[in-house]
UniProtKB/TrEMBL annotation, chain A:
Name this protein carries in UniProt: Acyl-CoA dehydrogenase
Matches recorded under InterPro entries: Acyl-CoA_Oxase/DH_mid-dom_sf, AcylCo_DH-like_C, AcylCo_DH/oxidase_C, AcylCoA_DH/ox_N, AcylCoA_DH/ox_N_sf, AcylCoA_DH/oxidase_NM_dom_sf
UniProt GO MF annotations: acyl-CoA dehydrogenase activity; flavin adenine dinucleotide binding
A Pfam short name: Acyl-CoA_dh_1
Record has Flavoprotein as a keyword: yes
Residue stretches making up the Acyl-CoA dehydrogenase/oxidase C-terminal domain: 235-381
Automatic annotation (TrEMBL), chain B:
Family, as annotated: Belongs to the acyl-CoA dehydrogenase family.
InterPro entries xref list: Acyl-CoA_Oxase/DH_mid-dom (IPR006091), Acyl-CoA_Oxase/DH_mid-dom_sf (IPR046373), AcylCo_DH-like_C (IPR036250), AcylCo_DH/oxidase_C (IPR009075), AcylCoA_DH/ox_N (IPR013786), AcylCoA_DH/ox_N_sf (IPR037069), AcylCoA_DH/oxidase_NM_dom_sf (IPR009100), Mycobact_Acyl-CoA_DH (IPR052161)
Domain (Acyl-CoA oxidase/dehydrogenase middle) ranges: 130-223
Coiled-coil stretches noted in the UniProt entry, renumbered to this chain: none
Cofactor(s) needed for function: FAD
Ranges where the Acyl-CoA dehydrogenase/oxidase N-terminal domain occurs: 6-126
A cellular-component GO term for this protein: plasma membrane
GO molecular function: flavin adenine dinucleotide binding; oxidoreductase activity, acting on the CH-CH group of donors
Domain of life: Bacteria
Domain Acyl-CoA dehydrogenase/oxidase C-terminal: 235-381
Keywords tagged on the record: FAD, Flavoprotein, Oxidoreductase
Protein name in the entry: Acyl-CoA dehydrogenase
Annotated organism of origin: Crenobacter intestini
């Protein structure tokens, strides 16, 4: 057991951090989020193509770097820290995780190499945990040698910029299937929608008798692999939330150190310090939960021996814990930052609202803290 | 970063589990899951004997360096032993202050003679230690200690003053005492770190009757008590005391967590039995407790990784576990409902969960109260301005 980062992991993290400091500063984020796609194409080119940040999760035999899930989580954490407007979570967290968990070798070979190269942007519709009343969904039925898909998903992250869509669908008997289809498939459309958090763009996805070949259906899909895919995606969004929590705290500490009232920096008041201490507590617990869950996700996706399988069984609890803690930490910290900034934190000009909104959106995406708490409760009490 | 254990470590786990299964039997069977905080007064004689049994098995000083007589086990194996110990229901350790605090401090700061004198009795499970830090007027402000150390004509230091909240003082053979070597000094300067035998005329121990009606803590009065040794030089006391606090955040926290696990499991059992597990509010709080305990383990693993970047994980640890445990005590009462009022025996024999509820109110006070922890976190973890000091 070695619960510390390797030298390579630190290098990846630091390289991404340096890139984002340069290319995902406030002004750049604001330009990207106001653009038609809500996505920063230049940043994506630098991150996914030049730096191969998506390749970390793709095995070498499919053209990837074969690094692992911890590396992907470190990238995600940095993206959250900079509220970066890129489809990393959609492509890696949602799609690559799903392909790794639910697709066979030939299917992985067909779709993962583009993701590794940074040329494929992908997303997944229908991976959410069942929560509240939901009218989203897609149906599939046999059609010749293949299938026809129809349905609607109200909000799918970065679907409008994806060139590969994965869709979870059900037939009339309730059987679940997962299909991978090119974005240009006739009958498939993705229309960007306005969202409160503008840094994580989403689209409405419509499927109207989309014909797909039999080979588009992921062959290793079952309840277990689908849960693994969803849990891995959950861990990666938790990593982004950790970055949001961290950055919110750092902003608040910097600002309160400069802002003076009653003749002294407001950071010298215990009321401020104690709030900041609670923010650090939440961020650090979230960090412990996210890093641990990332290790577990890595074993679940790539582990082959008995020790790995033993660890992989912890994935549902580890993922729920990471998401609940990171979600609460991000929202608490961003909300606290807003409070500690005072009036200027309420303005559009200061960046606090970008973090506040990203925290709100991501803490509900793939399950709210309450949902994950109840998931833990079910495993424990029922 | 890897969290699975190697086959060699798993073999070590089996070895530890087997030893515990074979030895927590017979006279020691009744000690399983006993003697933790709130239950520290139970089975004293048997637990003294257990310390020696553990030592004979080579399970005291698992993480100590081999040159100090320990096993020199890796962090992974220390984690494994702490987990297996708690899983087996190993009783609350009477020797933990010696093994976890005094020993590592003496190993780090002692002379070869001091190490030879003090370390082997700890490793044999014979010498029990207690900690003489807090005083009536030096609580959160530990540097305000007023206990005096006077160098006599015979070359020996004599200690006078009062310590308070001293766990296990009534059982301990030795106490490490923070005392002022320079009477003109104040604050962090002019302190010494003394090793004092408890069995001598100048030392009086008076138990403090607590909120639980039991007495885990004591007052200790020193009246010209002779110190057997000074660790380091006069004036090194603060430096050594602070280093000791670093040892305190060691692997022992993992054993503590397994005790917490046992408490939470009992609460879950009760909640399932009496139907509280179906109450939405209770469900959410039990899940929160489960998650809080699990993340405590992950956080401890990060701390133990020893990464320089992970000092913040150590900094928040006390605030988290203390608050978590206090909340667990309240959860236990709320799960029991009105039945929480019913004592075990007359006149005031508390149940395990009642003890938990009451005793955990101390957790957010001792070892740095939650308020002091928040100051430390803000100042050391975030670099925010230090608290102003009065004169």
């Amino acid at each position: 057991m070695q619960f510390t980062f390797t030298e390579e992991q630190r290098m990846i993290r630091d390289a991404v951090a340096a890139l984002l400091a340069e290319q995902s500063a406030s002004t750049q984020v604001r330009v990207a989020m106001a653009s038609a796609t809500g996505t920063d194409d230049a940043l994506w080119q630098a991150l996914a193509v030049d730096m191969q940040a998506c390749a970390v999760l793709v095995p070498e035999r499919f053209g990837g770097l074969g690094a692992g899930f911890v590396e992907a989580a470190l990238v995600g954490e940095q993206l959250g820290r900079h509220v970066a407007c890129v489809p990393y979570h959609a492509t890696v967290g949602l799609a690559a995780s799903t392909l790794l968990a639910c697709a066979d070798d030939a299917q992985q070979a067909a779709w993962l190499s583009g993701i590794a190269a940074g040329t494929t942007i992908a997303s997944v519709a229908g991976l959410a945990y069942a929560e509240r009343k939901c009218t989203d969904g897609a149906r599939f039925r046999l059609h010749g040698d293949g299938y026809l898909l129809s349905g609607r998903f109200a909000a799918v992250p970065h679907a409008h910029v994806a060139n590969l869509m994965l869709v979870v669908a059900h037939d009339e008997t309730g059987e679940t299937a997962l299909f991978a289809l090119p974005a240009e498939s006739p009958g498939l459309s993705a229309r960007p929608i306005p969202t409160m958090d503008q840094t994580r763009a989403q689209a409405e996805v419509l499927l109207s008798d989309v014909a797909v070949p039999a080979s588009a259906r992921l062959t290793r899909l079952d309840d277990t692999t689908l849960t693994t895919a969803r849990d891995c995606a959950t861990v990666l969004i938790a990593a982004e939330l950790l970055g949001v929590a961290d950055a919110s705290l750092a902003m608040a500490v910097d600002y309160t150190g400069e802002r003076r009232q009653f003749g002294r920096a407001i950071a010298s008041y215990q009321a401020i310090k104690h709030r900041a201490a609670d923010m650090l507590l939440k961020a650090e617990l979230a960090r412990s939960a996210v890093y641990y869950a990332a290790c577990v996700a890595n074993e679940a996706l790539f582990g082959r021996d008995e020790a790995a399988r033993k660890v992989a069984r912890e994935l549902p609890q580890a993922a729920s814990l990471a998401k609940a803690y990171a979600g609460e930490a991000a929202f608490y910290n961003a909300g606290s930052a807003l409070q500690l900034f005072g009036g200027v934190g309420f303005t559009w000009e200061y960046d606090v609202h970008l973090y506040f909104k990203r925290a709100q959106g991501c803490s509900h995406f793939l399950g709210s803290p309450a949902l994950h708490r109840e998931r833990v409760a079910r495993a424990l009490l029922d | 970063m890897k969290i699975s254990f190697s086959p060699e470590d798993e073999a070590f786990r089996e070895q530890a589990a087997r030893w515990l299964a074979e030895n927590l039997t017979g006279e020691f069977e009744k000690l399983r899951f006993r003697g933790g905080p709130g239950d520290e007064h139970s089975f004293i004689d048997e637990r003294r004997a257990w310390e020696k049994r553990l030592a004979a098995g080579g399970w005291v000083g698992v993480g100590w360096a081999t040159e100090d007589g320990g096993r020199g086990a890796t962090i992974s194996r220390q984690v494994i032993f702490a987990e297996e110990y708690a899983r087996a229901g190993g009783p609350g350790r009477l020797g933990h202050i010696g093994e976890g605090l005094a020993g590592p401090t003496i190993a780090a700061f002692g002379t070869p003679d001091q190490k030879a004198r003090y370390l082997p009795p700890i490793l044999r499970g014979e010498a029990l230690w207690c900690q003489g830090y807090s005083e009536p007027a030096a609580g959160s402000d530990l540097a305000a200690v007023a206990t005096r150390a006077r160098l006599g004509d015979d070359g020996r230091w004599r200690i006078s003053g009062q310590k308070v909240w001293t766990s296990l003082a009534h059982l301990a053979d030795w106490c490490f005492v923070l005392a002022r070597t320079d009477p003109a000094s104040s604050g962090h300067l002019g302190l010494g770190f003394f090793l004092v035998a408890m069995a001598q005329p100048g030392v009086t121990v008076r138990p403090i009757e607590q909120i639980t009606g039991s007495s885990e803590f004591n007052e200790v009065f020193f009246d010209e008590a002779v110190a057997a040794d000074l660790l380091g030089a006069p004036g090194d006391g603060w430096k050594i005391a602070m280093a000791l606090l670093g040892f305190e955040r060691g692997v022992s926290t993992l054993g503590q967590q397994m005790q917490f696990r046992g408490e939470l499991d009992e609460i879950i059992r009760v909640a399932k039995d009496n139907g509280a597990a179906q109450d939405p509010d209770i469900r959410a709080r039990i899940a929160e407790a489960q998650m809080g305990l699990t993340v405590m383990r992950y956080n401890a693993l990060r701390m133990l990784g020893g990464d320089a970047e992970e000092t913040r994980a150590a900094l928040v640890y006390k605030l988290h576990w203390a608050s978590w445990h206090r909340n667990l005590g309240k959860l236990a009462m709320d799960v029991l409902g009105e039945a929480a009022e019913l004592c075990d025996t007359a006149p005031y024999g508390l149940t395990r969960l009642q003890s938990l509820f009451l005793f955990t109110r101390a957790d957010t006070l001792y070892g740095g109260s939650n308020q002091i922890q928040r100051n430390l976190i803000a100042e050391r973890g975030l670099g925010m301005p230090r608290e102003a000091k009065g004169r």
